[in-house]
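Rotation project, supervised by the postdoc (A.L.). Task for the rotation student: set up a whole-complex structure prediction and record inputs and outputs verbatim in this book. Inputs entered:
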Amino acid sequence: MGVHFGWWDRDGNSLRSNPGKSLRSALVILSCRALGGSSHQALPAALAVEMAHNASLLHDDIIDNDRLRRGRASLWSAMGVPAAILAGDALFFGSVHALTGAPHADRTVPVLLSAVQTLIEGEYLDTLMEKDATATLDDALDMIAGKTAALLSCACSLGAILSGADDERVEPLGRFGLLLGLAFQCTDDVLGIWGDPESTGKPAMSDLRSRKLSVPIALAINESSQPGERLRALYRRKESPTEAECRTLAHELESHGVREAVVELARENAQEALAALNSCDPDPVTVEELAKLTKMILERSS
Amino acid sequence: MGVHFGWWDRDGNSLRSNPGKSLRSALVILSCRALGGSSHQALPAALAVEMAHNASLLHDDIIDNDRLRRGRASLWSAMGVPAAILAGDALFFGSVHALTGAPHADRTVPVLLSAVQTLIEGEYLDTLMEKDATATLDDALDMIAGKTAALLSCACSLGAILSGADDERVEPLGRFGLLLGLAFQCTDDVLGIWGDPESTGKPAMSDLRSRKLSVPIALAINESSQPGERLRALYRRKESPTEAECRTLAHELESHGVREAVVELARENAQEALAALNSCDPDPVTVEELAKLTKMILERSS
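Outputs recorded:
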């Protein structure tokens, strides 16, 4: 696990490398403070959500055959599939464990379990829709609601619960997290095609290479436009796309306004997210921080 | 999951095939009844333990590259690694979920979490000790205490807790399960070398082929006997053993009394298990059933 988190290399030598954005734990803490709780109260859930997220990354990298994570070798490629499966399993159980001894466990544990089940279903949808040339935008949005937004929503709900707030005030924060998660994944999908590998730590155009279904792909693949036809042909054929084919396609999709449409979808979801947040009578200072975080999510390059 | 459990084939056609022994759920139910509870009270834990066990089988078959399970294709080999990883993840979370809504969740959930963490550590030890020509009998016993006995002990403890008994009467049942688990794994290790593939549903001499550390191997590999030397050479070299080498080795180990020594170790652990069971003032009718189950474990061929 230490290798995965970038704390040390596989021989145990200390590293100081990119540990990830810790977005989810930040959301837990800010959601708790938004409803009058303290950062300290939020810690068990911050830990739980970060562990569940990293467990899913460990398993995802095996599933997607991704050799790079945060600019380093992914754990399965550094230490083998067995180590990565078991480290993921242990982190998943650790995430539940982080909540069981903490206050409000009777409310937090079911929220975590349900979010992770939705996450797993979203990831399974993701694998089923790979190379699928018939998927619609709704299919893609369903999938990202599961694989990304469920855990962000869970992060906000858990933080809110640990503040001691009642369900009526927790609900808008869960909705904020869900909409923010949709915005986050739209941005991620833009980076998956047009992101700079130097910043993302992943190969260039990785979603095109692996022919994943993502929001930009779903927007274009049913169109009769030139990139639409090209995409369908590419997703249906047996051989993997070449680097040159990916580059042409990325360029064409951008010229046809697909990139801008997804960026706009991210913006709309982020706006709705902030509206949901403001409906729960939150602490105004914390709202400002959450608004900054939302802006950062939209503008991020990694 | 239905494919894994043998409920249907991968096209959804109904099957009536071997669903596994359900040993762990039987232990939960009998442990609950041993302390005056009903079978009905034990059901949430029976479900939880069976789900956790099957989750670990799904991930183990990937880790060990095992293509056969219960005489059928293992899930990863039938439906791919992604499906098997995610089905295992979902079953792991399902196992916690089965307990959270049930009585005594504050006592049962920590027992399950701790057992599964021990299970995962045992499985990791197992992968580290593969092809290890220096492992001792203690190493092997530590490993099987984690990978097998922890969950059997958990099954008995959970059943006992759901009967409503206090910790003082739960503890001997946990100990019964732990010792029974050691006996179970000793028998499993005998079958892993000398079992009939028709009954086990696994390839013949599978533990020798994959050069796993098991109790019989640990007994022989540090000896200066002929099979000991042969084993060390085989576990150290790069190439996999041939079928003929496995056959010769299995025969020699048996001639040198290794099989009988492991059978005897299983018997001793089973006897101690029954002594632990009898120390908690259990219901005598249920004790008889648990004694029969113990006998079945020692004499099983699958």
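Student's summary: The two ends of chain A are 22 Å apart (CA to CA).
Supervisor addendum: Chain A has 15 helices and two strands.
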